[in-house]
Design goal:
Elements: H1 2-12, H2 15-43, H3 47-57, H4 60-63, H5 71-84, H6 93-101, H7 108-130, H8 139-188, H9 193-203, H10 209-223, H11 228-239, H12 242-257, H13 261-285, H14 287-290, H15 292-321
Helix pairs in contact: 1-2, 5-7, 6-8, 7-8, 8-9, 8-13, 9-10, 10-11, 11-12, 12-13
Length: about 325
């Protein structure tokens, strides 16, 4: 406490004002803590308030069999709703990012922004508590550490979601060729497109669970009465893969104009194999260029040392004798 008072006093230049600022900060923190605990204990524990929060949240998550959200999740949703806006979040870029990362919940945007708001505050509080334990810290370094903690808390959720998005899209891209081949076989054997998608989802449930879940969701939308083209468009929007978007465009045109779905899938499968072969050849062609840098920075110094080193040693010995 004395350390914090000395830091504030050195910043404002008045010990009385420093004590007043410190007391105001402590009082504000206590009020915020009491309000937060009151929301958790009194507000969300109330059956009426919890029911109203669930109704406002929507029953989509409960309809698919997920468990009821916890009080902490409801609190994060309320904080994020105040921060990020409700209706605009449904079509925002954050919604698309979270959807590609696998978070399809109706409250995903609110929880995401609430975490990005509360995590910097939490890390700043931890930094303020840790600073007195570090002796001989100047005001500038303490301020830099506090700002760094806030920046880390703001960036960590974004980096985590981005990495999760990249990993999920990679797994979907790996499983897409198998799903396409199975879909061609199912359609050519006489199954309709919804039944073929359902069968492919069942077959890929173990090897590619995320892609199977997406295909099962397409089949559920079709069964619910959504047109095939719209359900496939939703699949392309959820995955964000160019390969899936190309397939969805071809299938939508095939359904619209009444052409054979089997022929469309077979042609796209052949084109997709050609693109995979071209992508593999492109990666192989880049290997020679990528190997230049390891050769220059790793092998060339050792070769130079072995080839020129003895000559340099001999020249030094010769000049040493002179």
């Amino acid at each position: 406490m004395d350390y914090l008072l000395s830091l504030i006093g050195s910043a404002v230049g008045d010990q009385e004002l420093a004590r007043l600022i410190f007391l105001m900060a402590v009082g504000l923190s206590a009020v915020l803590a009491v309000v937060t605990i009151g929301l958790l204990v009194l507000g969300l524990q109330s059956p009426v308030q919890r029911r109203l929060a669930l109704i406002k949240r929507g029953q989509v998550d409960l309809a698919v069999g997920n468990r009821s959200p916890s009080n902490l999740q409801l609190l994060l949703e309320q904080v994020g709703d105040r921060l990020g806006g409700g209706e605009e979040s449904k079509t925002s870029s954050t919604r698309t990012l979270l959807m590609h990362a696998g978070y399809r919940s109706g409250s995903a945007v609110q929880v995401y922004w609430a975490i990005r708001l509360l995590l910097p505050l939490l890390l700043v509080g931890i930094a303020v508590l840790v600073l007195p334990l570090l002796p001989k810290l100047s005001m500038s370094i303490a301020l830099l550490m506090t700002v760094g903690a806030a920046g880390i808390g703001w960036l960590v959720p974004a980096v985590y979601v981005d990495k999760r998005k990249e990993g999920r899209m990679t797994r979907l891209r790996v499983g897409f060729p198998d799903a396409l081949d199975l879909m061609v076989v199912c359609v050519e054997s006489g199954l309709a497109l919804p039944q073929a998608i359902e069968r492919v989802a069942d077959e890929l449930a173990v090897s590619h669970s995320e892609l199977a879940e997406e295909l099962a969701l397409v089949n559920a939308e079709i069964r619910a009465g959504i047109p095939n083209s719209l359900a496939l468009k939703n699949l392309a929007d959820r995955t964000g893969l160019e390969d899936v978007q190309g397939l969805v465009s071809l299938l939508s045109q095939s359904i619209r104009f009444g052409t054979s779905v089997a022929d469309t899938l077979r042609i796209y499968a052949e084109e997709f194999r050609d693109r995979r072969t071209q992508a593999a050849e492109e990666q192989a062609a880049k290997i020679g260029t990528k190997l230049v840098f390891p050769l220059i920075f790793c092998l060339w110094p050792s070769f130079f040392l072995v080839a020129i080193g003895p000559v340099i040693v001999g020249v030094l010995k010769l000049f040493g004798k002179l």
